[in-house]
Amino acid sequence: MLSPDEVERAQRLKIPASRDQFVRSRAWMRYLLSLYVDVSPSDMRFVYGERGKPALSSGDIHFNLAHSDNRAVLVVARFAVGVDIEHIRPTNFESLMVMSFTEFERSAVNAEPDLALAFYRVWTRKEAVVKCLGSGFRDMARFSVSAGDDAHILRLTDFLLFGLSLHEVKQDGYICTVATERKISRIIVRDACEFSPNS
Q1: pLDDT for 136 beyond 50
Q2: Strand partners, 154
C-alpha cells in the first residue's frame, strides 16, 4: 500500500518499533483518507511542502498526522490543520523549555500546579501551530501559547498566525492539540477501528 518513497523512509528508520509505527500509521492514513476522496489507498499520491508537510496531490482535503508511543492521530479538514500528540510523563522539562519555549512560556509553565501537563500543553500547541502553517521548529520563537486550560496563541509577532485557533483533547494519559486556520465549534474524535475494512 505504501509508495516507494514511504518504503524507503521506513527502511531508513533503524529502530524496529519506530519503523513499524511509521508503516502502520502511514497505511492507516492512506486508508482513512481514501474514505474522503475517490482514490484507492495504494493509488494515493502526495506532494510535500518546502518544510516537508504532506498534502494530497489532488482534491481539497487537508490532513495532518502525529504519533507518540503506540498512539497515532490523524486530523482531516477542508482547510489547513496541524496536530501533535504527546504522552504526559516526566522528562527534563527545563532543558527542553530553554531550547524551544519563549521566556513568557517558561514562566507560564512554571506557574502552573501541574508542571508536566503545562509543559506538554505548550509543546503540543506550538508543534500543532507550526505544522498547520507548514513551517518549522525555527518559527516557534515567533509566537507564544498559553499553558493553562484555555488553549490559545498569545503575543503574535507574525500576521500568518492571525485567525488560527487551538483545540485540545486529553485521553488516557495523552494530550493532543489541533491547530486550525479557521475557528471551529467542535472536534469529532473517532477511533480508527471504527473504520476498519475488516469490520
Answers
A1: yes
A2: 144
